[in-house]
Amino acid sequence: MTGQQMTGAQALVESLEHAGAEVVFGLPGGAILPTYDPLMDAKKLRHVLVRHEQGAGHAASGYAHATGKVGVCLATSGPGATNLITAIADAQMDSIPLVAITGQVGSMFIGTDAFQEADIVGMTMPVTKHNFLVKDAAEIPKVIKQAFHIASTGRPGAVLVDVTKDAQQDMMEFVWPETLDLPGYRPEPRPHGKQIREAVRLMLEAKRPVFLLGGGVLRGSATDEVRELVDASDIPFTTTLMARGALPDSHPSHLGMPGMHGTVAAVSALQRADLLINIGARFDDRVTGRLDSFAPGAKIIHADIDPAEISKNLVADVPIVGQAGQIAKALTEELRARLAESDTRDYEGWWGTLDMLRENYPLGWTATEDGFTAPQKVISRIGAISGPDSIYVAGVGQHQMWSAQFVQYENPRTWINSGGLGTMGYSVPAAMGAKVGMPEKTVWSIDGDGCFQMTNQELATCVINDIPIKVAVINNSSLGMVRQWQNLFYDQRYSNTELNTGHGSRRIPDFVKLADAYGCVGLRCERDEDIDDTIRQAMEINDRPVIVDFTVSADAMVWPMVPAGVSNDEIQIAQGMSPEWERDI
């Protein structure tokens, strides 16, 4: 196949279009400048100019979260590239398909400490699925095709493509490869029939089974197949922080979110189960608490696309490697065939226990004592008024947990957050990316006053590019989750957690004035009776971003809570209060 003569930079733009990219979030600089010139003439690519490279990475992540497509970000060498590292690590931890493209100094300058040189390939090797250094213009089409394939197949992840300046400037003959040559990369294993049969046998023998559904259900677009399996099995399920919305919260078998701030019913179900069926979850520490006391009586079925995750933290009795959808479909078919022969299941006692826990220990909150609004109420009303078709994007901390707890999620890809890395500053740029990917959806950034100050410069990007997100700043004038830990574990010594953003006479900064300075609409809500009207007012404004400063109590804490490093059996429903396990179960 004979191609057209062009520069490597032109080939890079052409390759992105061939790979199916629609949007690129980026910021130009010297080493990537050759690519920005032909990017100006691109017909199929929209470029969104961000105000900080970290914002570009998080925006690409939010875009990928919301759409299921590969997110793309672009930066220059040196500090431009290093500013992307947090976003790259964040995407990799949460299995988000991301391709980050960086410019690099000329190949003859590599290793000389040239101006704005940084070994971004070496720096990102631990936090990417794969990365490339391209020094030959002719390699660009092949590498871009490989990068998109690697990022989006198997367990999705982040791929870095570092392109030297001379590779962008040199002439080459553009040929888009028809095939992929990646020896040893076999990302789509099929589930083994023997393991499927053994898993179903355990499911039929169990008296107290429970599903643990993780983010892999969403990353693998397997929600329909998994729901069919849950319905066929009549087994209760939990959805991890990364799986919220994978199946509807209203499903009668849903117990809630497990883990450090999970529901009593979900945490208890995992602890007292005799069988855990894990589909696409990592058994990370925020779910398990102390590993040696997690689900002590349970056999483990662990299904995951990534064999490295299986038996990494907990040894699986039945490991199943494959796509979540294929595994769920195979399990459903085998289960139905076995049930047609004989159905000996008896979950009545198990469901009786779980229903009692759901009834006795529902999520809720108590009235604040300091006169300020309960943040849980604000977030609950945002979810109720905006509804389950909206997309909710959280930062990290208390507001993140409350958003996971008190917004009802009925649809996949409507809950976006930084789960594994826990990156403050994630919400605003990720919401921006989600809105670009799903422009017809209402997108709420639910952010803390601490997180918001890390990346709120991307409001300029939103205004200039007509990206009308809505931002709810849950303003407790402090670093809320850190303050909660100081309250519980450091004798209420609030060292360096007061932010002076909302309580008293000081508002530094004043978020309403800041919104106005950026060309957004700024609203403030300080009274419970104004919450609904303020949210509805924000909902009616769709021609520009809206920032709502909700002044809330700094004393509110996230409950339930399993303190770090202890058994999930030590879950607390309020400070000093635990469920009465022995009496109730």
UniProtKB/TrEMBL annotation:
Residues annotated as domain Thiamine pyrophosphate enzyme N-terminal TPP-binding: 6-122
GO biological process: isoleucine biosynthetic process; L-valine biosynthetic process
GO cellular component terms listed in the entry, alphabetical order: acetolactate synthase complex
InterPro entries given in the database record: Acetolactate_synth_lsu, AHAS_TPP, DHS-like_NAD/FAD-binding_dom, THDP-binding, Thiamin_PyroP_enz_cen_dom, Thiamin_PyroP_enz_TPP-bd_dom, TPP-bd_CS, TPP_enz
Domain Thiamine pyrophosphate enzyme central: 196-331
Co-factor: note: Binds 1 thiamine pyrophosphate per subunit.
The protein's enzyme class: transferase
Cofactor(s) named in the record: thiamine diphosphate; Mg(2+)
EC number annotated for this UniProt entry: 2.2.1.6
GO molecular function, one term: magnesium ion binding
Highest rank taxon of the organism: Bacteria
Record keyword Membrane present: no
Residues annotated as domain Thiamine pyrophosphate enzyme TPP-binding: 395-550
Translocase found in the keyword field: no
Pathway of action: Amino-acid biosynthesis; L-isoleucine biosynthesis; L-isoleucine from 2-oxobutanoate: step 1/4; Amino-acid biosynthesis; L-valine biosynthesis; L-valine from pyruvate: step 1/4
Keywords on record: Amino-acid biosynthesis, Branched-chain amino acid biosynthesis, FAD, Flavoprotein, Magnesium, Metal-binding, Thiamine pyrophosphate, Transferase
Protein's name according to its UniProt entry: Acetolactate synthase
Reactions performed catalytically: 2 pyruvate + H(+) = (2S)-2-acetolactate + CO2
Family, per entry: Belongs to the TPP enzyme family.
PROSITE patterns per the UniProt record, alphabetical: TPP_ENZYMES
